[in-house]
Amino acid sequence: MIGEKIKELRERNKLTQSDLAKLLNITRSSVNAWESGLSAPSTQYIAELARILKVSTDYLLGLNNTATISVTGLDTIEVGLLVETANKFRENRGKEM
């Protein structure tokens, strides 16, 4: 459900509903309605939400389960450390199953 994704990503980005509403130039109650499943964002807002929350529109819509992170501003060593960390998480998750 898109509302659950919006809430999860908003919280992950340390934004309140009011913060997100201000960034989108809408009311907090609109964000709350999306997160509660009472309404859904229009195409315009889906694109803007994806940009603000740093995910693809496909991920936001639940069409793709692959999340991405921006490595802009990081050097090669820092990117390498992120890749190693992600691989360790995958290894550990495989051991739990």
From TrEMBL:
<keyword id="KW-0238">DNA-binding</keyword>
<dbReference type="InterPro" id="IPR001387">
    <property type="entry name" value="Cro/C1-type_HTH"/>
</dbReference>
<dbReference type="InterPro" id="IPR010982">
    <property type="entry name" value="Lambda_DNA-bd_dom_sf"/>
</dbReference>
<protein>
    <submittedName>
        <fullName>Helix-turn-helix domain-containing protein</fullName>
    </submittedName>
</protein>
<dbReference type="Pfam" id="PF01381">
    <property type="entry name" value="HTH_3"/>
</dbReference>
<feature type="domain" description="HTH cro/C1-type">
    <location>
        <begin position="6"/>
        <end position="60"/>
    </location>
</feature>
